[in-house]
Design brief:
The protein is of the alpha/beta class. It is built from 10 helices and 7 strands. Bound molecules: zinc ion (ZN).
C-alpha cells in the first residue's frame, strides 16, 4: 500500500512540485505573508486637502458658489425617497408649500388660520401620495419656516424665494407644484384655481390637467380654466404650476379646507394629474376638455 503511494508520488513528482511552487508563490504575495512596511506602500496616501464632502462647495443654478448660509440650507433640503414602486418611479418632483415662518400669506376671516398652515398640511399630504406612487419628492419646506436670513442684505421674501428655487434646482426636480390658498374681496368666490407660466407649453399642459381634475373632484360641473400667472416660482425653467386650492375668504370653503378629508381629496386630484402628465398620451384629451 505504502509502496503504491510512493510510486504514485514519484511518478507525478514534476506535476506535484509545480503545484507546490505555485502555492508558495501565492502565499508569498498574499497579505498574510507580507511585512507591514510592504503593505503600507499599497495603501492610499492620506489626502493633504480637506475632504470634498460634506464641506465642499455647492454650485447654484447660475454657476456661482453658494454662500455658507445658503449652502447649509441646500444641504438640509427635505428630500423624501419613494416608499413603493409606482407610475412615478424614477421621477423627482418638487412640492412648494407657499409662505411659511414670518410670511403667513393670506388669512382666514375673523383672525383665523394663516394660509401657510393650510398650504403645509396639503403639501405634506401630497408628498405622501407622490412617494407612495414611486416619486422622489423635494420639499422647499416641510416645517413652518421661511428660508431667509434674519437680516438679509435685500428683501426677506426675495431671499426666501431664491433659496426655495435653489432647493428645487440643485436637487434635480423635473416638475414643481406650488400649493397656495386664495383670498378675494368678494366672499362668494370659491373653488380651485391653477396658474402656469405664459409660453411654457409643458406647464400649461400640467395646469390644465390639475384644473380639470380638481374641478371634477371638488366642484363637478365647474368650467373654471387654468390661467396664466406671473409668479416667480413658475419661472424656474421646469414644468410647474401654482395651485390655489380654494378661497380662505369664503367661510364655507375655508371650513372645507381645514378638513383633513378635503385636504386628502385635493392631494389625490393633484397626484392623479401628475401621473397623467407623465403618461403624456392623455394630454390631447385633457387639452380638448379644457378647450371645449
Ligand atoms: Zn399664497
Amino acid at each position: 500500500m505504502l509502496e503504491r503511494l510512493w510510486k504514485c508520488i514519484t511518478g507525478n513528482a514534476r506535476w506535484i512540485g509545480g503545484c507546490l511552487a505555485m502555492l508558495a508563490v501565492g502565499w508569498a504575495l498574499s497579505p498574510a505573508a507580507q511585512p507591514a512596511w510592504w503593505f503600507r506602500r499599497a495603501e492610499p496616501e492620506p489626502s493633504p486637502s480637506p475632504p470634498p464632502a460634506p464641506n465642499g462647495e455647492i454650485l447654484l443654478s447660475d454657476g456661482t458658489q453658494a454662500d455658507p448660509a445658503t449652502r447649509e440650507i441646500l444641504l438640509s433640503t427635505p428630500v423624501y425617497q419613494p416608499t413603493a414602486e409606482g407610475s412615478l418611479s424614477g421621477h423627482i418632483i418638487a412640492v412648494d408649500p407657499g409662505h411659511g415662518g414670518y410670511d403667513g400669506g393670506a388669512r382666514a376671516a375673523n383672525r383665523g388660520l394663516w394660509e401657510k398652515v393650510y398650504n403645509l398640511r396639503i403639501a405634506l399630504e401630497l408628498k405622501d401620495m407622490l412617494i407612495a406612487n414611486g416619486a422622489t419628492v423635494v420639499m422647499t419646506r416641510d416645517t413652518d419656516e421661511a428660508l431667509n436670513d434674519p437680516n438679509p442684505p435685500g428683501r426677506k421674501k426675495r431671499q426666501d424665494m431664491e433659496r426655495r428655487a435653489e432647493r428645487v434646482l440643485t436637487h434635480g426636480a423635473e416638475m414643481l407644484l406650488s400649493i397656495h390658498q386664495n383670498d378675494y374681496r368678494v366672499a362668494s368666490q370659491h373653488g380651485p384655481q391653477v396658474f402656469y407660466r405664459k409660453d411654457c407649453a409643458a406647464g400649461r399642459e400640467l395646469a390644465v390637467l390639475l384644473q380639470t381634475n380638481l374641478n371634477e373632484e371638488l366642484y363637478p360641473g365647474s368650467r373654471r380654466r387654468a390661467n396664466v400667472g406671473d409668479f416667480y416660482i413658475n419661472s424656474l425653467g421646469i414644468p410647474s404650476a401654482l395651485v390655489e386650492c380654494g378661497f380662505l375668504s369664503n367661510a364655507a370653503e375655508e371650513a372645507k379646507l381645514r378638513d383633513p378629508e378635503y385636504q386628502r381629496r385635493i392631494a389625490q386630484a393633484i397626484t392623479q394629474s401628475v401621473i397623467e402628465w407623465f403618461a403624456r398620451d392623455n394630454l390631447p384629451q385633457a387639452a380638448a376638455r379644457e378647450d371645449r
